[in-house]
Give the backbone structure.
Amino acid sequence: MERVDEQLLAPFLAAPDRTGILTDFDGTLAPIVDDPTTSRPLPEAVDALHALAARYRRVAVISGRPAEFLATHLDLAGRPGGVVAVGLYGLERADGDEIVTHPDGADWRAVIAEVAERGDEAAPPGVILERKGLSLTVHYRTSPESLEWARSWVAEQAERTGLVRHPARMSEELRPPVPVDKGTALAELAEGLGAVCFFGDDVGDLPAFAVLDRLAGEGVATLKVGVRSEEAPPDLLDAADVVVDGPEGVVAVFSRLLERRVPG
């Protein structure tokens, strides 16, 4: 595992009141698992996030998970003003136990529900349909031979309904045609900050990295942290400023961001 150079962390340690610590969830705070419903963040990652929120201006998790799931497993209830959870790539947001839905997404719940019912009838054994309210993810990790079926079926549903297909790691996702992603979510959270970092491990995190590149050109101190796993896409690791190994590596960087010492 690469060690994050002290100088890369210096802008964050020096000005926590102007700094944002932003991160993905699956594969970054939580180990990758076969069944998405069993995914849980490392307890030490959750503790570190709340400790970071007490020191830094903005601490947030940006994920494809529903905001309610994130709020529950990141222990956000009763802690407004602390860690923010942006769910479904920006379609939902949780601050404490309050969840707000993007106004352009709400009308698509019935469409997602109808597609999910079709999927229940059509999916081969081993394929998992994860209902997220405003999106649907078709997981074939436990049935890799169903890859072509998943791609074909999701493409068919996208054409039929107007939902948008988003390929992901060992899965295919259908989302409403609302122009949000981890990049737009990061841009909103980074507004007014002088330093921003983001931890990510999959292709869905590349838009966030791209926004960090833009912010760097505008004079913001940025850091792109790639999280390595057996399934991490080479494009993301190549785009990162530094790479760490799994959620444990992320927690190690969090710990260093909690140090009071400012590198000289």
Notes: The longest helix spans residues 147-161.
